[in-house]
DNA sequence: CGGCGATTTGACATCGCTCAACGCTCGTGG
DNA sequence: CCACGAGCGTTGAGCGATGTCAAATCGCCG
């Protein structure tokens, strides 16, 4: 069940089948969609708006994020995007995007023209696409809870628990570790706390033996305790049919 | 453009036409959907999960909210729902809801069976429904920014600006005032700050001459200044074709 | 080796929370 | 009609969590 595909169609069909049983026709329709594969360097904004021919995309490889810049110049990351995600489905219906989507590492993305997406809509994949959008929205809502109702230690633990579960769901966890090539500054921009305090929170988690973070490699040493510190309950991730071990139960 | 309809079909067709031009057929399809109108008292959860026959609903009258309860017992309101909103579109694809939807005042809701919604999907209203879901998601994302990147005064100002704009869009603003029958406790649960501090923030806004709040009546005395304090830029509300005066410009 | 960005740590300032008290309004029961 | 209590709003005082500033260290890359 390890999925490490770099073929966008395979990636998407895996994702969609995780949501609903797809007929052969639907799979064919999916396979027939032209997808233009593009490589990007790290720290680039993925510009879609100015494209004369509006496109959505699926993230194939790498790590990306969406962020908004506040009036005072601070920036708030509103979502992390992992391979298989379709970050700008949200702005599909709107003419404009209200958040910037940017790569955090070198990324491969698969561009899909919006009119082709709409054809998929008509061809029975509406439910799957709806689910994808709704699952992203559910994560965003949980972020509201994270930022509004939890202190900095708890927030940090929650986000790491979430990322662990999502990485696991796409087969990006080896043992208890995954790669998270982001800076503490970026983490702070997502958690709404200062870099200095991110550092302190991580130190506490490390000292409590819950995680280790060396270079880009994050290890979840005690996922149950980490989830407890972060009040993490993974239901909101809505992994429809395939349940990763995201909801640890004390033995 | 004042809309004060208590007929759910009219409410929805107004909302959808605000997004895309609908054909006569599409309007007919919408009008043909059976909607069961139900009245509810204040402070009730709107239970959909246990219904043997899963339904979504449109809020016709009143004020409602979605909230999640954190592990430590605190609750975080993740959305306010105004007339015309369809609060649980998000959980349509999922078997379960991960947030509680509750009335804050006496409400009238219009229940729509999910299979009827899916028919609308097939009948050309997919784009409109997609837009509704995406617009809600965009608001949630802005809430992430509000909670993560702004201090308590700014948060409060931003939320009031948002509610003013949304109230205005549904014709619920008279002059510079609208009715907001919620307690400071509830406001605090939405803003992620304590009741005491909500009170202090409101006091500051009042003393600066930006708002007045008497009983349930909120008046926005200086919407430009309020927007400035809250770093409010209403683009994210995605009022598609009808632009309320949500984006004040200094003269 | 030198330099730059990221991490780490300490000291101090500030924001927002908690606790506590008081007033106001409204509904209820005597 | 009045007394009372409940819920909400308001305010003050003290404290704790988190931000800011500054500096040292580390690691990587040229």
Protein traits:
homodimer; 251 residues; alpha+beta; 3-stranded antiparallel beta sheet; disordered C terminus; DNA-binding
Brief digest:
Chain A is an alpha+beta fold and 251 residues long. Chain A contains seven helices and nine strands, in the order ααββββββααβααββα.
Number of strands of chain A: 9
Helix content of chain A: 40-55%
Computed CA radius of gyration of chain A, to the nearest angstrom? 18 Å
- Main pleated sheet of chain A: 3 strands, antiparallel
Q: What class do helices, strands and sheet pairing of chain A give?
A: alpha+beta
Mean pLDDT of chain A: 88
Helix and strand sequence of chain A: HHEEEEEEHHEHHEEH
What's the shape of chain A?
globular
Number of helices of chain A: 7
End-to-end Cα distance of chain A: 25 Å
Q: Biggest sheet of chain A, strands in spatial order?
A: 1-6-2
Low-pLDDT residue intervals, each spanning 5 or more residues of chain A? 242-251
- Largest contact between chains: A-B, 51 and 51 residues
Q: What portion of residues of chain A belong to β-strands?
A: 15-25%
Regarding quaternary structure, how should these chains be classified?
homodimer
């Amino acid at each position: 069940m390890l999925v490490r595909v770099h073929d966008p169609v395979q990636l998407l069909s895996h994702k969609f089948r995780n949501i609903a049983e797809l007929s052969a026709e639907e799979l064919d329709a999916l396979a027939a969609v032209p997808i233009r594969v593009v490589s990007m360097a790290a720290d680039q904004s993925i510009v879609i708006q100015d494209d004369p021919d509006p496109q959505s995309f699926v993230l194939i490889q790498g790590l990306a994020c969406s962020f908004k810049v506040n009036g005072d110049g601070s920036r708030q990351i509103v979502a992390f995007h992992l391979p298989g995600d379709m970050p700008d489905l949200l702005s599909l219906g709107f003419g404009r995007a209200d958040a910037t989507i940017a790569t955090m590492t070198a990324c491969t993305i698969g561009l899909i023209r919006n009119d082709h997406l709409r054809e998929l809509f008509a061809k029975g994949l509406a439910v799957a696409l709806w689910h994808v959008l709704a699952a992203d929205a559910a994560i965003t809502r949980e972020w509201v809870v994270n930022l509004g109702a939890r202190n900095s230690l708890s927030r940090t633990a929650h986000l790491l628990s979430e990322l662990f579960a999502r990485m696991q769901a796409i087969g990006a966890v080896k043992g208890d570790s995954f790669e998270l090539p982001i800076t503490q500054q970026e983490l702070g921009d997502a958690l709404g706390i200062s870099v200095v305090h991110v550092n302190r929170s991580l130190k506490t988690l490390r000292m409590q033996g819950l995680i280790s973070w060396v270079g880009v490699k994050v290890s979840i040493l005690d996922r149950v305790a980490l989830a407890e510190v972060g009040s993490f309950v993974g239901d909101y991730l809505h992994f429809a049919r395939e349940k990763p071990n995201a909801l640890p139960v004390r033995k």
